[in-house]
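Please review the protein record below. Let me know how this chain folds according to its tokens.
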Amino acid sequence: MVSIHLYGKLRRFVEGSEAGHGNVLKFEPQSGETLERLLARAGIPLDEIYNIFFNAKLLATRSAMAHWIRYQQVHANPLEWKLDITVKAGDRIGLFGRDMAALVI
């Protein structure tokens, strides 16, 4: 299973979620499925996401401050939003909505 942890207003994509609970979606990855395709399958619009963490590393962000924070990163430039990374069982994805931007970066 791939687990997608949703924060802020993105939690509404988890059916029956309530404050402090229900922020995780779980999917069985399809063969060769990319993160972009998985997010589409989950029904989560990319324009509502501010930061994406992939296995505890910053994958994509809308903040130019990411360089200064010095998170471990998947790609050299997380501002490019390269979501063609293949997901596999055991991967953990963290999605922070635009309302959570100041708490992460």
